Amino acid sequence: MSQRLLTSAVFAGVAAGLIAAALQFMFVIPALLEGELFETGARIHFGADGSPESDRGAPGLGGDWGRHLMTVGFNIVTYVGFGFLMLAAMAFAELRGLTMITARQGLIWGLCGFVAIQLAPAFGLPPELPGTPAAEIGPRQTWWLGTLIATTLGLWVIAFGRGWVALSGIVLILAPHLIGAPHLEAYWGVAPPELAAEFVSLSLGTAAAGWTALGGLCAWFWTRDTP
Amino acid sequence: MNATTKTISRADVTLLPIAFAVLGGLTLLFASGYAQASVLHDAAHDQRHAMAFPCH
Q: InterPro entries annotated for this entry (chain B) (predicted)?
């Protein structure tokens, strides 16, 4: 039965990765490439003359298909990776007799994955446009990792814990944000605030769709009848 | 009847394949999201930004 675990994770991960990549090319990558115009100085928003004004408009995907192919490839790798973890968690919950997964339940598992891996870390460290200066990579990765582990455990405890134990999940989810994410002492962004804000919404919304698809597909492959 | 058969076949999963899946998943994610080697970083750059992995 370990084979079912493996194949379900791979099928679901590849499919969800392709869905996520398609959505990223529609919504996220154009904003990212527009951000790069400010990162490289091709466009300047906060000019020396004191005018915070610049043209609006994404430059288009361009002809760098190698780069875009890599983005699709790494989306697949990432979503297969998360698919393995998702199915391990689903199988573990079933093994412990906590629940029996259904395909529709999988959608909720996917949404919880989105909350734990994307939304909770983004609450402290918003998705960054290229060229956004940020605090040192080490502390940020540590906070990011700690936050997603704490949020995952918190959601698990809320879903499967009893009585007061379930409520302790709230503490786990809240704790990283009370500690606070590492930030710089000053603002250094070169891109228009509107573009940075749009990028955050677009990337979180896209991730929400990708994760919901991943959860639903993992559960569907996992529970489907095999002849 | 059908549901019972399914339950039995899925219940065969033990901790070992689950642990194996966790290990496999973490390895893939380390490569795509966490590793700082510059070849990997450049190739995964756009996807890391889109997924909001803290990558540089």
A: CbtB_put
Mutual orientation of helices A65-95 and A193-223 as an angle, nearest 10°?
Answer: 50
Best residue in B2, B5, B10 for a mutation probing chain A (most A CBs within 10 Å): B10
- Kindly give, in sequence order, each residue whose CB lies less than 8 Å from that of residue A193, ignoring residues fewer than 6 positions away: none
Name the nearest CA neighbour of A222 among A102, A112, A93, A98: A102
- Residue A205 contacts residue A28 (beta carbons within 8 Å): no
**Type and span of the H or E element at A157:** helix A137-160
**pLDDT for A160-190, tens place per residue?**
999 899 999 999 999 999 999 999 998 888 8
Question: Residue A89 burial by CB count (10 A; 0-12/13-18/19+): exposed, middle or buried?
Answer: buried
Check CB contact under 8 Å for B22 and A29.
Answer: no
The single-letter code of the amino acid at A45 is: H
Please judge whether A78 and B32 are an interchain contact, meaning their C-beta atoms are less than 8 angstroms apart.
yes
Q: Is A127 helix (H, G, I), strand (E, B) or coil?
A: coil
pLDDT band at A3 (very low <50, low <70, confident <90, very high): confident
Q: How far is A139 from chain B (nearest CA, A)?
A: 10
Letter for the amino acid at A11?
Answer: F
What token pair was written down for A140? 């940020």
Q: Over 70: is that where the pLDDT of B6 sits? A: no
CB of A125 less than 8 A from some CB of B:
yes
Nearest neighbour of B25 by CB, restricted to A71, A84, A206: A84
Q: Please compute the mean of the pLDDT values over residues A2-21 and round it to a whole number.
A: 95
